[in-house]
Amino acid sequence: MGNDNNPETPVPLTPVSAEDFAWRKRRIVLICSAVALVVALAAIWVFRRSVDPLEAQKTLDAGERQLKAAHYAEAILAFDHALALKRDLVEAYQLRGRANLALAQLEPAIRDFSKVIQLRPDSAEAFVDRAAARLGQQDYQGTIVDCGEALARDSRLALPYNMRGIALRETGSPQKALQDFNRAVERSPDEANYFQRAATYQLIGEHKLAIMDLDQVIALFPSSPTGYLARAKSRAAIGDLVGARGDREAGRLLEGR
Question: Is residue 256 part of a domain?
């Protein structure tokens, strides 16, 4: 009994079998492999986070070049790829929307412009773009709302006044439309704004005022038959049959070129 607590009594060793030793070695290998895998995945994630935005920008730039060249389908494919690399790339949504709009694919265009508005709610351009798509759908109330939102953000723009004027005229408010066309002409005295105001003057029977605007349309765009043919109607309405005939002939000649 006196020897039970003897510190010099040897502690018996538990023998380790070859199978136990192999299992422990495998555990160490598995742990090391798991750590290496986690490190590798983290490195790939960091690398992709640094590379994807650069690749997305390059693809965006390529799509923009296709859009400027009027290669709309190719541009859309490029923007799709850019967005697959970077989902919040606002410019890709906006430019893809414009490509869809050019192809008269109005619903996809509206979805893209709505996404731009969601990501960048202060963008007047996004509301202008969506208004153009809605006008193409003859969604006049939607057009009026979007043009108002655009003008609330930038009242210097001319196009929202033009499009809202068209929508107001189509919904039976030509006088309100004229107010918008006046503002559009003030901000941008181009043929599109003069023409839409002239069309509104014709609608309410103000043919002399329409002729004055159509004179501007023809001066700005003399190679287009539209101004001549529209002016012929107003000239005929005020009894200028000779002038009306001359305008019709000029318009038909330009149409047949």
Answer: yes
Could you tell me which residue, 107 or 54, shows the higher pLDDT?
107
Polymer length in residues for the chain: 257
Q: Which of the residue ranges 17-21, 112-116, 120-124, 218-222 would you say has the lowest mean pLDDT? A: 17-21
In the block, tokens 């439309």 appear at: 177
- Residue 191: the pLDDT is 96
Structural domains in the chain (count): 1
Is residue 2 in some structural domain?
Answer: no
Question: Do the domain assignments include residue 234?
Answer: yes
With a cut of 90, say whether residue 249 has pLDDT above it: yes
Task: List phi, psi (to 5°) of 79.
Answer: -70, -35
Backbone φ and ψ of 172, nearest 5°: 90, 25
| DSSP class per residue in 170-202 | HTT-HHHHHHHHHHHHHH---HHHHHHHHHHHH
247 in any annotated domain:
yes
Longest dimension (CA), the chain: 141
Task: Name 162's Cβ contacts closer than 8 Å, sequence gap at least 6.
Answer: 180, 181, 184, 192, 193, 196
pLDDT-based confidence at 209, cuts 50/70/90?
Answer: very high
DSSP character string of 36-99: HHHHHHHHHHHHHHHHHHHHHHHHHHHHHHHHHTT-HHHHHHHHHHHHHH-TT-HHHHHHHHHH
Q: Check whether 198 has a pLDDT greater than 70.
A: yes
Tokens of 105: 């694919």
Q: How confident is the model at residue 47 (pLDDT cuts 50, 70, 90)?
A: very low
Q: What is the pTM of this model?
A: 0.77
Domain holding 235, by residue range, is 208-257
Long-range Cβ contact pairs of 247-254 (< 8 A, separation 24 or more) = 250/225, 251/225, 251/226, 251/227, 252/225, 253/225, 254/223, 254/224, 254/225, 254/228
